[in-house]
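Bug #77: duplicate submission created two jobs. Keeping one. Sequence:
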Amino acid sequence: MHPETTILNHARREIGDGIAIGYGHFTRQATAYTEMHSHEEAFLALVTEGQCQERLEKGEAQLLPNNCFALYGPEASHARIPGPQGYSVFGIALPHHLTQKINLKPKQVRKLLQPGVRPARFQQEFKCPDAYSELALTAMVYELLADAGRAEPRDSKAPSWLLRVRERIEDDRTLPRLSDLAYEAGMEESYLSRCFRLHFGQSIGEYSRQVRIDQVRKDLMQTELPLGALAAQYGFTDETHLCKIFKKAFGVAPGQYRKSTHSN
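Kept job's structure:
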């Protein structure tokens, strides 16, 4: 019999347009864990204090650090293991008509990197409401959904040559030069850049950094390679550069991320 995660406090509030926001703080004993479960509705999660390790379907895992947003489709299975200090989280239930706008599929999970909404502002509007907080919270949820929609690859109509460029970026452990990509595709650099952003929602440089930093994240979980070696392997200037980019993307330093994932 495993000890259960403890919910220290919980609050729930209905706001505009069919959106409901719940808030809770979770703590645990060292061996506690939560079982895999799912929710009928799609929802956003915002971790505002502490951190937790989240397990997804097919054995995948991700760290949800402080000030991190994640988006879950209907019936997306997950389990969260609170960090040593526990964690506080907002759960934002989303009606179907909103998730349709960003083509959120059942069981899909998207982590939102560098969202436009400031988590501290969201928390303030919920905990210290005034006559306009419902409008402010609704607007922030819409902005988060817009961020999620823009971050999702939009490659359904991308030409085959552009898909090959993206595959080339994914296969290259370092940052490929734009001039090389354009030469291989037989296109002008400016035209390639415009087409890539149009179809995939981000620049070539942004996509390359996302691919490489996510591979670093996986290697931190699965290997003991030192940070300097990972920096060199994935084309970062040095360990300091890698740490800066990693913390910007995931909210924690790579050493802290590795320690957290290995401790669980």
